[in-house]
Amino acid sequence: MDSIRIQGGIALQGKVRIQGSKNASLPILAATLLVGERSFIRNCPRIADVHSMVSLLKSLGCSVCWQETGIAIDSSKVRRGEMPEDAVTGMRSSLCLLGALIGRCSEVVMEHPGGCVIGERPIDLHLYALGQMGVEFAEESGRLRAEASRLHGAYIRLPFPSVGATENVILAGVMAEGDTVLEGAALEPEILTLCRFLENCGACIEGVGTGRLVIRGGRRLYGTDFTVPADRIVAGTYLFGCMGAGGCVLLEQAPIEEMYAVMDLAVQMGGKVYTSPEGICVQAPVRPDPVRVSTKPYPGFPTDLQSVVLAVETVGRGCSYIEEGIFENRFRILGDLCKMGAQLRQRDSRNVTVRGVASLHGACVEAKELRGGAALVVAGLMAQGETFVRGCAYIYRGYENICRDFRELGARVTSV
Fold first, then answer.
1. What is the pLDDT tens value at each position of the chain, 416 positions in all?
2. Cβ distance 143 to 110 under 8 Å?
3. Cα distance between residue 301 and residue 236, in whole Å
4. Most buried residue, 21, 22, 97, 293, by most Cβ within 10 Å?
């Protein structure tokens, strides 16, 4: 089913459980390659990107079995590091297999990774960091070959806190000879979760949760039972969905500690936000107050929620200013929002002014990337009349069942 039909104009009420984290699950699944034993990963979201990663692991020789509460993975028979072309080019997160396979097999052959088109997203930092650890890279018929006859620890300073490069250094570092010191590491919660998983497997990583990591390499790793935390971006999508459509919702099991920047912005927009052991409760204003938003690396406001905030502010009570500080091509929903009646002005590739209108109207729009697609669904919830969102394969890469979740909150949303 490639489209979502939304009958908008209905305030959201009730509660919804937040799925497991996409951005935490994928590097953890890659990390199971380093174990060489059976691991069980609980609360993995059943999304397209996880299914693609599972297919990649199977192609490398892993035994993978979905169970009711998670995924059982046995990587004991992995012997080679060549990934099939079709799986890699469709999924950016396959890049985290680079560090894992270098650590396990000492070599990798892969296509350049794909994924959502939201900017340049070069892999230079990955190559630089792993190169410091003894990895040599070459181009072969358009494919990337990486080899390390001796993977060793190193001192590495990242000029930008890249999440992917940080993950690759950690994955390679736990298997390297000696210690790896990583300065300028990303602080995203998914990095902490990856480190916790590896520590459960026997790794020694110091400085977890800070920008300076010391990875003690060469320790034997073993299988473990690990639970993936809830997805902060999905929780944020539903939180801002309520802010735009109106109503009051409880986000069960939302990761409160990871969402302070999100909750702070919701309060600035006029919402009332409460936390409890159950999760996060949000009560929407009549119309959102205008805000200035600038996306930043964690703990700043996440780029993955910029599109949905932009969509919500189209019905705000004044002018909002949105600055994209991470990617240079993340305003691809502007044309579709204008079809729905939004008043938007793009000042340059990084900045948009949003002048709020009384209401949006339904239209036929198209998702062009994951988070923008989810923002169009939220816009449809806010609009008067019927909205069709096409190209929903992008959305299903990160949301288990966005239609079911919004239906649980009273929305009229169906896949068609």
1. 689 999 999 999 999 999 999 999 999 999 999 998 999 999 999 999 999 999 999 999 999 999 999 999 999 999 777 776 665 555 556 788 999 999 999 988 887 765 444 445 578 899 999 999 999 999 887 788 899 989 999 999 999 999 999 999 999 999 999 999 999 999 999 999 999 999 999 999 999 999 999 999 999 999 999 999 999 999 999 999 999 999 999 999 999 999 999 999 999 999 999 999 999 999 999 999 999 999 999 999 999 999 999 999 999 999 999 999 998 778 999 999 999 999 999 999 999 999 999 999 999 999 999 999 999 999 999 999 999 999 999 999 999 999 999 999 999 999 99
2. yes
3. 11
4. 97
Q: 303 and 371: one domain?
A: yes
Find the length of the chain: 416
- Residue 116 appears among annotated catalytic residues: yes
CATH classification of the domain holding 391: 3.65.10.10
Q: Is the dihedral of CA 339, 345, 347, 353 positive or negative?
A: negative
Please state, as a whole number, how many other Cβ atoms lie within 10 Å of the Cβ of residue 314.
25
Do 342 and 266 share a structural domain?
Answer: yes
Q: Is there a single domain that holds both residue 251 and residue 397?
A: yes
Alpha carbons 76 and 174: distance in angstroms, whole number: 17
Per DSSP, the chain holds a count of helices (H) and strands (E) of 13, 23
State whether the Cα torsion 301-304-305-306 is positive or negative: positive
Question: Per the structure, how many domains does the chain have?
Answer: 2
From 96, 105, 116, 242, the catalytic residue? 116
Give the C-alpha separation, 39 to 24, whole Å: 16
Q: Of 227, 253, 268, which residue sits at a domain end?
A: 227
CB 70 within 8 A of CB 141: no
- Order the strands of the 143-147 sheet from edge to edge: 107-110, 143-147, 136-140
Q: Are residues 236 and 352 in the same domain?
A: yes
Q: Which domain holds residue 376?
A: 4-19+230-415
**Using an 8 Å Cβ cutoff, are 356 and 290 in contact?**
yes
